[in-house]
Amino acid sequence: MYRISELAALTGLSRTALLYYEKLGLITGQRLENGYRAYRDRDVQHIRLVQQLQKGGLTLLECKACLDSQLDYAVLQSRYTALQHEIAQKQQALTLLAGLLGKSTSKGWHETLAEIAPDAYFDWLRLQGYDEKQALRIKWLSKDMNEHEQYMQDFFRVFSTLESWGPGSVEDTTKAYQLLPSSPVHILEIGCGNGNATMTLAALSDADIIAIDNEQSALNRLEAKIQAHQRSDRVSTACVSMTELRFAKNRFDLIWSEGAIYVMGVESALAKWQPLLKPQGMLVFSDLVWLTDQPNDLASEFWRREYPDMQNINTRLRQIQQAGYQVTGCFTVSENAWKNYYAPLQQRVSALKASMPDSQALSDIQYEINIYQQYLGEFGYQFFIAQKSE
Questions:
Q1: How many distinct structural domains can be found in the chain?
Q2: What CA–CA distance (Å, rounded) separates 98 from 118?
Q3: Does residue 218 sit in the same domain as residue 267?
């Protein structure tokens, strides 16, 4: 016989819990002559059996039903399903915490946030101590705070010798420029990179050009081209963010951005760049779009991760018009523009594989090349030529 305090010590339950067990009929206490409640060894065993059933997720009432009659397999299946779901949630939580602590990769979590809450995610990265450039690179490139520094070292090792940092060609830039209704006088180029388009625009026009990018090493290469072609009298550079342009309103006849608008987000850029344009000023940009309504699953999944806001042409046209522009022309960039970028990139990746066998950056770049080689045509860059409505 056990008094209630002894039973509590044996089972790890409180006096209140034991009284509740007794109320449910799971145990049966006896009142002794001295007024104390007493329990038998059978009660101890009932409690231990209940505790084991509870480990399967059963409630006390369900445990009692299992003890009073045959197992209810429908109840057990329901608890089994619920427990599977709970385990999956706990595993996700464990994976996330491990990633944030640097015990494993957090890439999937970063990709999810970039897709479902891009602005809040970017702001959160800034709160973690990253400057804007670093936050953008985590969002679009490394997708992993813990491995970011090594990732970017590898990334720039790949691109340090390449002339093109994205698809493009003189022919496509020229074609887009020739669709302008008049010759611009003041051009702002946003996301100029190494300046391939910059130099084409300088050759096509007599305009003053300000070329901006947030990567100084790219601007240094552009500066060398400007000096070599003697364009410094009307082409200048500035290392600034496209999200924090401090130019006067109505300053530019033309804003030009090839393959860079995605960094800021198309709709956000359409709104924030518009005040910089003069009335009837022009905006020309290229953006990655879907060219089919039924892309291959691998291509779809890849670009969902890499560019969650990727749209089809009609959606972009509608967004441009809703932002207060009139679309005056658009076309898909040539296959040659892609070759100009990916052929040298593949050569560079192949040359570095032996010395960078474990590089995540190199692996990611190679996979992107594979997607391009297999599925170009389902997606492509589209030039949009638009005029400010007011």
A1: 3
A2: 22
A3: yes
Instruction: State whether 223 and 301 are in the same domain.
Output: yes
Torsion, Cα of 283, 287, 291, 295 (10° steps): -160
> For residue 76, is it within any domain?
no
Same domain for 349 and 311: yes
Closest by CA position to 305, among listed 139, 97, 121, 98: 139
Boundary-marking domain end, from 71, 92, 119:
71
d(CA 345, CA 341): 6
Which residues make beta-bridge pairs with 380?
289
Residue 59's CATH number: 1.10.1660.10
Residues 214-249: b if buried by 16+ CB within 10 A, e if exposed: bbeebbebbbebbeeeebeeebebeeebbeebebee
Question: Which residues constitute the domain of residue 128?
Answer: 105-146
* Alpha carbon 4 to chain centroid, angstroms: 58
pTM: 0.79
* Tens digit of each residue's pLDDT (9 = 90 or more) over 47-99: 999 998 888 888 888 888 888 877 778 888 888 888 888 888 888 777 777 77
Task: Identify whether the C-beta of residue 5 lies closer than 8 Å to the C-beta of residue 37.
Answer: no
Last residue of a domain, one of 56, 71, 86: 71
The Cα 295–Cα 106 span in angstroms is 27
